[in-house]
Amino acid sequence: MTDKEQFMKEAVNAALKGMNNNEGGPFGCVVVKDGKIVGRGNNKVTSTNDPTAHAEVTAIRDACKNLDSFQLDGCEIYTSCEPCPMCLGAIYWARPDKVYYGSNQVDAANIGFDDEFIYKEIPLPYSERSIPFEQLAREVALEPFQEWTKKMDKTEY
Ligand SMILES: [Zn+2]
Predict the structure, then answer these.
(1) What DSSP character marks residue 126?
(2) H or E element: which one contains 13?
(3) Distance from the CA of 84 to the center of ligand 1, in angstroms?
(4) What backbone torsions phi and psi does residue 140 show, to the nearest 5 degrees?
(5) Does domain 3-150 match CATH 3.10.180.10?
(6) Where is the CMP/dCMP-type deaminase domain positioned along the sequence (predicted)?
(7) Are strands 75-81 and 28-33 parallel, antiparallel or unpaired?
(8) 89 CA distance to ligand 1 centroid (A)?
(9) 10 is known as an active-site residue
(10) pLDDT-based confidence at residue 114 (cuts at 50, 70, 90)
(11) Which of 1, 40, 93, 108 sees the fewest Cβ atoms within 10 Å?
């Protein structure tokens, strides 16, 4: 087994462990930097009542905490399943160097975890989405942006 396959196996083991502990769905993830695991995660949606507690998100949070950074520079993410759109976004915000995934969207859909509908929602106009989005009070909402541009001690990212 190559090092990469070993890291994927670690992600799969996290999926199995979390699932067997009834923490959530069968998904696991590890974050690797310089050949070492710096973050681990598994799906914890049902045990923490957190719909965002997907394996990739929990692993990114763990890695960022351990690295004391809000970015995953020089890191690789190994996730047991192809990331959903939410995790895809989280991964882009975290900016790792590369993502390896094990099973894919179709495999996940086959056991009842179908995120295809979210991909289909993304290009739709807001008015046609299954959850309506409506803009409200833009002028009021722009205040933090105006303050941000003036803020001298901000941490940019
Ligand atoms: Zn996800």
Answers:
(1) G
(2) helix 3-20
(3) 4
(4) -65, -40
(5) no
(6) 2-133
(7) antiparallel
(8) 9
(9) no
(10) confident
(11) 1
Token pair in block for residue 93: 């915000």
Residue 31 is encoded by which pair of tokens? Answer: 């974050």
Any bridge partners for residue 144, and if so which? none
Query: How far away, in angstroms, is 51 Cα from ligand 1 center?
Result: 9
Whose CA is closest to 34, among 10, 1, 67, 8? 67
Helical packing angle, 55-67 and 85-94, nearest 10°: 20
Which entry of 5, 10, 23, 56 is annotated as an active-site residue? 56
What's the whole-number mean pLDDT along residues 26-30? 98
**With contact defined as beta carbons under 8 Å apart, do 85 and 118 qualify?**
yes
Please tell me the distance between residue 90's alpha carbon and the centre of ligand 1 in angstroms: 9
Confidence (pTM): 0.94
Residue 118 dihedral angles phi and psi, to the nearest 5°: -70, -40
CA of 142 to the centre of ligand 1 (A): 30
Contacts of 116 (CB under 8 A, 6+ apart): 105, 109
> Which helix (H) or strand (E) covers residue 101, if one does?
strand 98-103
* DSSP count for the chain of H helices, then E strands: 8, 4
37 and 31 Cβ atoms separated by less than 8 Å: yes
